[in-house]
Write a structure and sequence with these properties.
By secondary structure, the protein is mainly alpha-helical. 63% of the residues lie in helices and 0% in strands. The longest helix is centred in the N-terminal third of the chain and has 16 residues.
């Protein structure tokens, strides 16, 4: 691992260790900034996904969600289930329901690829995610799990 990546990982570990201990208003923003690190593609996928999950657990603030969605388009080939789960967390974090508009094309690509590549568990996660999107009013995603005859193509 390059020394600069190791130093950044140590810096991140320090930031995470401080989370929850201080009364700083910008604590969520500090952790949310990891979305930029995730999107950079400079960290190995396993570590990056673990840290992204940690961010989702600790804050609902997500700066740069569109960048994460773009990165998930690249990771879905290697990590379909993790990519779908991360996308689902992005969708859940969009409490207003309109932020996804900026990255819905990337979301569609991730879901389509995961449905194609994934196992039964991944396909079930895709169907659940599409259901969440449709419930939020993004009806155009319905076609990803419902075939032209109106029958479900997803799940098993």
């Amino acid at each position: 691992m390059p020394p600069v990546i190791e130093r950044l990982r140590l810096l991140w570990a320090f930031a995470v260790s401080r989370a929850g201990r201080s009364n700083q208003d910008d604590e969520g923003n500090e952790l949310s900034a990891f979305t930029w690190w995730f999107a950079s593609g400079q960290f190995d996928d396993a570590w990056a996904f673990e840290q992204l999950e940690l961010v989702f657990q600790k804050t609902s603030l997500l700066n740069g969600a569109h960048l994460v969605a773009e990165r998930l388009v690249q990771t879905v080939d290697r990590e379909p289930l993790r990519s779908i789960r991360a996308l689902d967390k992005l969708v859940q974090s969009d409490r207003e329901g309109w932020r996804i508009i900026g990255w819905k094309d990337d979301a569609r690509k991730v879901i389509e690829k995961a449905m194609e590549l994934g196992d039964a568990e991944t396909r079930r996660a895709c169907v659940a995610l599409v259901n969440r999107l449709v419930a939020k009013g993004h009806l155009e995603f319905r076609e990803l799990v419902v075939g032209p005859t109106g029958t479900s193509d997803g799940g098993e």
